[in-house]
Amino acid sequence: MGAAAQRAAEESEEWAGVTPDAARRLVSAAVEAFGERGYHATTTRDIAGRAGMSPAALYIHYKTKEELLYRISGIGHEKALRIMGAAAEAEGSATERLRDAVRTFARWHAEHHTTARVIQYELQALSPEHYTEIAGLRRSTDRLLRQIIQDGADSGEFRADDVPGTTLAVLSLCVDVARWFSADGPRTPDEVGALYADLVLRMVGAQ
């Protein structure tokens, strides 16, 4: 499968839960436009055009541009929470769980770097009500990772005197993948995930 076809398949899977098809096309087009132009520079006409629809057709599914961003942010942050939850609740040592959490979290930010960049860096464009909801998902993800690191510190597996600060550093490291990753670059998402998992275990002094 070529790179373009692979990206199209990943996007289709990413938004599979969005129905009907027209709404899904609009979400995909909005991610592309926001990622390329930024939220504020993107117009609803831009989004509709990329989706092969008229601006009027967009409003049938989404009342505002902000509602599209909210939909994208919700799906992306719920996925991040599921990734972290699966690692936090898995059997195994804190070292094994942290490795899995970082590997999958960093890999997702590489595989879906455009979506991740939008949901991580356009948060301030959300309405206060929507921002509060998305911020709650982010805090839940933070708590799950913090618990893994705390478990490792308590068991003596990790040397982490400042667990909240270490948690923030690990999350920042993974999230930043979306800023620099390129599908045409030298590393695959799997390679990024493996590298970051190794770096984080060294960061916490895993035994």
Helix/strand order = HHHHHHHHHHH
Distance between the termini: 40 Å
Helix content: over 70%
Radius of gyration: 18 Å
Return residue spans where pLDDT drops below 50 for at least 5 consecutive residues. 1-9
**What would the principal axes of the Cα set say about the shape?**
elongated
Content of β-strand: under 5%
State the major sheet. Answer: none
- Tally of alpha and pi helices: 11
Structural class: mainly alpha
Count of individual beta strands? 0
**Mean pLDDT reading:** 91
Keywords: DNA-binding
Domain HTH tetR-type: 20-80
DNA-binding region: 43-62
Protein name: TetR/AcrR family transcriptional regulator
Task: Name a few traits of the molecule.
207 residues, mainly alpha, 11 helices, disordered N terminus, single chain
Describe the structure.
This protein is mainly α and 207 residues long. The chain is built from eleven helices and no strands. It is elongated.
In short:
By secondary structure, the protein is an all-alpha fold. It contains 11 helices and no strands.
What is the secondary structure topology, with strand pairs?
Elements: H1 3-14, H2 21-37, H3 44-50, H4 55-61, H5 65-88, H6 94-111, H7 113-121, H8 128-155, H9 163-175, H10 177-180, H11 189-203
